[in-house]
Design goal:
This protein has helices spanning 12-23, 59-66, 81-86, 88-109, 142-161, 187-196, 216-228, 231-234, 249-259, 284-290, 298-313, 316-319; strands at 3-7, 27-32, 50-53, 71-74, 113-119, 164-170, 173-174, 202-204, 210-211, 214-215, 237-241, 247-248, 267-269. It is an alpha/beta fold. The strands form four sheets. The chain has a seven-stranded parallel sheet with strand order 3-2-1-4-5-6-11, with helices on both faces. It is globular. The chain binds nicotinamide-adenine-dinucleotide. Nicotinamide-adenine-dinucleotide is lined by residues 8, 10-14, 32-37, 55-57, 75-79, 94, 98, 117, 119, 147, 170, 172-173, 179, 186.
């Protein structure tokens, strides 16, 4: 039985990873400071995991959390473009210094492999779709620069110290447990909750910007596959993790509205600074290296997500 450390394990993606690992009998330690994550995301595994309330910026705490661990899934971050534009310093300290602390902790503890939650924002607004890992990164926002810096650190630790690291560039992940309540929440979670509460969602920009929306189960399987693949195929490398489909925000809005029988049209606001216009990924590198295959497509992911938000946020009388 392997021992895993999941940083950001109380967050959206981290908590799905934790529940899957526990479900298959692995030992799991979670490190989180609950900045954006929630204890409620981990209720199903309460008593079955070791939970450490530690801030990534606390180098000593992170180092201790790495002790005795075989594998690290590094998900903790302040994961928002607009937040990084508004307040770049806390994002930088968590996303860059925090990632450095994880690598140092993992190196000193003799961890076997670190899989890092990288971001498609690294590609920026350059021409050329789909995005391929060989393209030169052109990050726009502070967040994108921070996540790319993490990738470079991951690659350095493989080359210099032989610590096996794998970077997975996630493309707009969505699904159950994504927090809909913050100004910085992902668009899918936010729209679903607003529609359920009878509020009118706002699309920033003209809504024709495209995203390679990727259902959470695909990301979980990518992490598990990348964790066990032979080092010769994955160590020191970067892989896109997506569905390989492009859907506009207008299309996403209509899909959610249809599933939720919501009649109002979207409101439109100004484009947000630092946002990329479009994203669409080529996933053949991950397929070739560790057999990644997106199992749940956009339409099915949307249905599952809506079912979950409906259960959680629909007014009481509708649920009875
Ligand atoms: N959701 C996406 O579409 C997406 C896309 C690309 C990359 N990512 C990356 O995936 C990872 C997980 O994202 P998510 O969507 O689950 O976000 P999330 O906000 O739900 O999870 C992040 C977790 O990190 C924790 N955290 C934040 N600052 C911390 C700190 N200083 N110390 C300890 N813990 C801290 C939060 O409390 C939270 O539990 C992030 O690294 C993010 O950059 C996400």
């Amino acid at each position: 039985m392997a021992k895993y450390l999941v940083t950001g394990g109380a967050g959206f993606i981290g908590s799905h990873l934790v529940k899957t690992l526990v479900g298959r009998g692995d030992e799991v330690r979670v490190l989180d400071n609950f900045e954006t994550g929630k204890r409620s995301n981990l209720v199903e595994v309460e008593g079955q995991i070791e939970l450490r309330e530690v801030d990534l910026r606390d180098a000593g705490g992170v180092r201790e959390a790495c002790e005795g661990v075989d594998y690290v899934l590094h998900e903790a971050a302040l994961p928002s473009v607009p937040r990084s534009v508004k307040e770049p310093r806390p994002s930088h300290e968590t996303n860059v210094d925090g990632t450095f602390n994880v690598l140092e902790g993992a190196r000193l503890a003799g961890v076997k492999r670190v899989v890092y939650a990288a971001s498609s924002s690294a590609y920026g607004n350059q021409p050329g779709f789909p995005r391929v890992e060989t393209m030169r990164p052109q990050p726009v926002s502070p967040y994108a620069v921070q996540k790319l810096t993490g990738e470079l650190y991951m690659q350095s630790y493989w080359q210099v110290y032989g610590l096996e690291t794998v970077c997975l560039r996630y493309f707009n992940i969505f699904g159950p447990c994504q927090d809909p309540s913050s100004t910085y929440s992902g668009v899918m979670a936010k729209f679903a909750m607003q529609m359920l509460c009878g509020e009118q969602p706002t699309i920033f920009g003209d809504g024709e910007q495209g995203r390679d929306f990727t259902y959470i189960d695909n990301v979980v399987s990518a992490n598990l596959l990348a964790m066990k693949a032979p080092a010769t195929f994955v160590a020191g490398r970067v892989f896109n993790i997506a569905c390989g489909e492009r859907h506009t925000l207008n299309e996403t809005y209509s899909g959610l509205a249809r599933l939720l029988s919501y009649a109002l049209p979207a409101q439109y606001g100004p484009e947000r600074e630092g946002d990329v216009r479009d994203s669409l990924a080529e996933v053949s590198a991950a397929r070739a290296a560790f057999g990644y295959e997106p199992q749940i497509d956009f339409a099915e992911g949307l249905r599952r997500t809506v079912d979950w938000y409906r259960q959680k946020y629909a007014p009481r009388e509708e649920q009875t």
